[in-house]
Specification:
The complex is a heterodimer of chains A (150) and B (756). Chain A has 150 residues and is α+β, with helices and mostly antiparallel strands. Chain A has 6 helices and 5 strands; from the N terminus they run ββαβββααααα. In chain A, strand 1 (2-5) and strand 2 (8-11) form a beta hairpin. The N and C termini of chain A lie far apart (40 Å). Chain B is α+β, with helices and mostly antiparallel strands. In chain B, helix 3 links the parallel strand 3 and strand 4 (96-100). In chain B, 28% of the residues lie in helices and 21% in strands. In chain B, the strands form 8 sheets. Chain B has a 7-stranded mixed beta sheet, sandwiched between helices. In chain B, strands 13-21-20-19-14 form a 5-stranded mixed beta sheet, with helices on both faces. Chain B contains 18 helices and 29 strands. The chains are: A alpha+beta (150), B alpha+beta (756).
């Protein structure tokens, strides 16, 4: 099976039911993508599949064959993404564990809704839990990033 | 192998120093530069030319190495504490390299809990910084042949005042290192007017790494040759394995072996729960292997634990006389005189910490020594616990502290690190134990379930003439001594014996409760249930008296004065703070109430139907906090929180931005407690398992905006990580009452609709 992660083609012959999350983390060592719940309840494991946010904890490796997977490690390959810049500017993270997933989700949201309303942000981001409670800064950073996109 | 890792890691660290930008690290290495640069050979601070104490080292290139001895779990301790040293040293923060300390008694108390990192660091860090600054000053004076009194520090340089000559810290480091380390009595401290960083703060040292996936959490630790493990724990506390299938898990691709972990010897303390570990070549395979273990358990006596009947027991106990923890005047005589009697019962269930990063640890046991990389709030507890379970001296346990993906008190208890160490010894390989979310929710050290009973007699003006309060909860002490059934001075001093109310007859009691699950510290601890009862009841009395809530609260606090709690509550410990330094000052409590009320527009704004405002005030961890919450309650009882106003007097605030973030976060944490948090047991087994049945606040449920107002203060620094939590739940419930007249006495709302 061929899998493309962050632009690199890789062969995989392990358990086809292995969730992408654990392939990224335990096999490839791409630990920027986090484990939070294993049931698509918290969003910590969010990566992009063909540019759209998915939960890697419930997506099997085999289901990603022929698709392009992008993780937090590749988002800033050409310099910080505007969403990351705003995350830093608004001092969003506390512990930071969920923030890879939050950032990947926010980038995906802004692709769909370049000028998101509060309702759009609630709708797009409420699947991503932050136990430290950084939501109001996440909202502010997304709005700032949207302004920057204009 | 151990040496190999250390060498590789040190090389990684040095490479990091050479490149000025973000560190680029191979995924095959532990990205140690991002957390613990320190090895058994010492820290970079130790190895620097000038290292007058364990917290600072200065090299000839002017690099200042500062050691962060407390853990980073999101509260900014790792940044804010060394920042105090940098300020006193007059060091340029841009030229500071932080290193995370390993667990080592030479750093003193390393526990990152109790909201005391900045409070402690304000003394130790300034001492350490002043020491280095004095040595640099003396070295410069020698170099120029001038009196030291003519020299003073400026940013990363010593200046000769008369001649305006300057010399950099790096240039002075070698000469300063030859001088004797000055005694404490010789040190002088910068005046407040000269502070560079204290009161201004700095963003997290790890900010960029946290936004790019490069930050190193416990979950991210890796070493060559490591295997992964997941443990099937006894579903009931104290349960034992009767039988299991050791072969079936091996059918799962990637599973290597199963290993029993023996049950703990009571009391459970921080020992592993026991059970069966499945070892595999990835985390997920280990999880899958557990499903085939088919364990038969001997559940033991705690299988009798049922939250429904236990709740009734607690509530009945709360209605009976308990052990007196504080007494003022004669409550019984005052009640006998009559007046308007108001009574209420309150209840808060068990809660689970649920940090986003579940417990996880990587351990490598070799020849009687173990090295562990883990997300811990207490690396010295890791040393002690692993020493105990492995039967080795704690000095043979090297604990590297990673970043923590949240802690909230769960990661003060290193049972998971002990599992990794036991399994590494058993397999002869480095083992990473990964807890699933289900493990985290089902096998926590829970926040105590608590029942409170309150009774007051009011005179014709609504002023209480008598006040009786009782709380009943399984105490944290039961984790360390099973027969402990009463709260200690610490728990009872958390928003209970220390209520500074102006009431002539006041009695505080505590009832007995037996534990059946592990009970532990949870962000703001006993303040949660005590604050909920006390501040809800204060609001009930305001209503019973037909008075405005803010005005009534101020009357209840009474005139500005220092309250000597210990005089009437002998076991009161004031969070370890000396009463001279940290007196309970009602002027400060009044001020935060007035400030929160003013900023919220209390009494001046017309709210729509279904909207209401509520206030609560609480002192915890030596910090005074008042919170006004505005709610909108719809016909279905669904509560929205458009805005929160929180006023904080935490004494001198080192890092205002991080402090604001803590109070914003506390409002969200508090929202989870109000809306949905409840851990319950049936036949000793915890009924919840993941975020579906133990929901925590999401963005659409959280307060839309939390405004934080920090009182300018010269009082010594107090806590900021926890004190935002306790007033939040009562403020919400008081707001719901204002909105629709429904009084909430039991949390969470999901079990007790807010619908009028």
């Amino acid at each position: 099976m061929q899998i493309k992660v962050n632009g690199v083609e890789r062969s995989y012959d392990g358990d086809p039911n292995l969730p992408l999350l654990w392939y990224l983390r335990d096999v490839l060592g791409l630990t920027g993508t986090k484990f939070g719940c294993g049931m698509a309840l918290c969003g910590a494991c969010t990566v992009h599949q063909d540019g759209k946010a998915i939960r890697s904890c419930v997506t099997t490796v085999s289901a990603t064959a022929g698709k392009e997977i992008t993780t937090i490690e590749a988002i800033s390959a050409g310099g910080l993404h505007v969403v990351q810049q705003k995350w830093i500017e608004y001092n969003v993270p506390q512990c930071g564990y969920c923030q890879s997933g939050q950032i990947m989700q926010a980038i995906s949201l802004l692709k769909e809704k370049p000028k998101p309303s509060d309702e759009d942000i609630d709708g797009g981001m409420s699947g991503n839990i932050c136990r430290c409670g950084t939501y109001q800064r996440i909202r502010a950073a997304i709005k700032a990033a949207a302004g920057e996109n204009a | 192998m151990s040496d190999n890792i250390l060498n590789v890691s040190r090389r990684g660290f040095l490479q990091g120093l050479v490149s000025t930008g973000a560190l680029v690290l191979s995924v095959r290495l532990i990205p140690e530069a991002l957390w613990a640069a320190e090895t058994t050979a010492g820290s970079h601070a130790d190895r620097a030319i000038l290292h007058p104490n364990v917290f600072v080292g200065i090299d000839t290139d002017g690099t200042v190495y500062l050691v962060a001895a407390r853990s980073e779990m999101g509260t900014s301790s790792r940044t804010s504490v060394p920042l105090i040293l940098a300020d006193e040293l007059d060091a340029d923060w841009k030229r500071v390299k932080l290193e995370q300390a390993i667990g080592d008694a030479r750093y003193g108390d390393q526990d990152t809990d109790g909201s005391h990192s900045v409070r402690d660091g304000f003394v130790t860090m300034r001492e350490a910084g002043a020491t280095a600054r004095l040595m640099l000053t003396q070295a410069a004076a020698q170099k120029w042949g001038v009196p030291a009194s003519e020299c003073e520090s400026d940013l990363h340089v010593i200046v000769h005042k008369p001649s305006k000559r300057k010399v950099g810290y790096g240039e002075l480091a070698s000469a300063a290192a030859k001088l004797p380390v000055p005694k404490k009595e010789e040190l002088t401290y910068k005046p407040k007017s000269a502070w560079r960083y204290i009161g201004k703060g700095a963003v997290s040292y790890d900010l960029a790494n946290l936004c790019t996936g490069k930050a190193g959490f416990g979950m991210d630790a890796r070493v060559d040759g490591m295997v992964y493990a997941s443990v099937e724990h006894p579903p009931v506390l104290g349960g034992k394995v009767k039988s299991y299938d050791e072969k079936a898990p091996l059918q799962v691709k990637g599973v290597k072996q199963t290993i029993p972990i023996k049950p703990f010897t009571p009391p459970h303390h921080f020992q592993p729960l026991g059970g069966i570990a499945v070892v595999a070549d990835n985390s997920w395979a280990a999880f899958q292997g557990r499903k085939k273990l088919n364990v038969a358990w001997d559940n033991g006596p705690n299988a009798s634990y049922n939250s429904d009947s236990y709740k009734k027991e607690l509530q009945e106990t709360a209605r009976k006389p308990g052990k007196v923890a504080r007494n003022i005047g004669d409550v019984d005589a005052a009640f006998a005189k009559g007046g308007k009697i108001v009574e209420a019962d309150y209840y808060i269930p068990h809660l689970a910490h649920a940090p986003m990063e579940p417990p996880v640890a990587l351990a490598d046991y070799r020849d009687g020594k173990v090295t562990v990389w883990t997300c811990t709030q207490s690396p010295q507890a890791v040393q002690e616990t692993l020493g105990d379970v492995l039967g080795i001296p704690k000095e043979n346990v090297t604990c590297h502290v990673t970043l923590l993906g949240g802690g909230f008190g769960r990661k003060s208890k290193p049972d998971y690190a002990a599992e990794a160490a036991i399994l590494s010894k058993a397999t002869g390989k480095p083992v990473k134990v990964v807890w699933s979310r289900e493990d985290d929710i089902k096998f926590g050290y829970y926040h105590a379930v608590a029942a409170m009973y309150m009774k007051a007699a009011l005179d014709e003006k609504g002023k209480p003439t008598a006040w009786l309060q009782r709380s009943v909860f399984p105490p944290i002490g039961s984790t360390f001594a099973l027969d402990t059934t009463y709260g200690d001075g610490g728990e009872l001093g958390q928003g209970w014996t220390d209520l500074p109310f102006d009431v002539p007859n006041h009695r505080v009691e505590n009832g007995s409760a037996v534990n059946h699950v592990r009970i532990g510290w949870f962000r703001s601890v006993a303040n949660i249930y005590h604050g909920f009862a006390a501040q809800s009841f204060a609001n009930e009395l305001a209503h019973a008296s037909g008075r405005d809530s803010v005005e009534y609260l101020l009357q209840l606090i009474g005139p500005a004065r220092i309250v000597d709690v210990k005089a009437t509550a002998p076991d009161y410990d004031n969070y370890g703070g000396a009463p001279t330094e940290y007196p309970l000052d009602t002027a400060r409590m009044r001020r935060v109430v007035e400030l929160a009320a003013e900023k919220s527009g209390w009494g001046k704004r017309k709210l729509g139907k279904g909207s209401g405002m509520g206030i609560a005030v609480h002192r915890s961890f030596l910090t005074y906090v008042a919170t006004v919450v505005e709610v909108e309650v719809d016909d279905q009882g669904e509560v929205k929180i458009p805005v929160v106003h929180t006023a904080v007097d935490a004494g001198i605030v080192v890092n205002p931005e991080a402090t604001r973030a803590q109070f914003e976060g506390a409002a969200v944490f508090g929202t989870s407690i109000v809306r949905s948090g409840a851990i319950t047991a049936k036949d000793g087994v915890i009924e919840q398992s993941n975020f579906n049945d133990y929901p925590v606040a999401r963005m659409n449920e959280a307060p839309y905006k939390t405004n934080v107002y920090i009182v300018d203060s010269d009082a010594p620094p107090a806590g900021v990580g926890e004190p935002g939590v306790p007033p939040f739940a009562p403020a919400v419930c008081n707001a719901i009452f204002a909105a629709n007249g429904k009084r909430i006495r039991e949390l969470p709302l999901s079990k007790n609709s807010a619908n009028g």
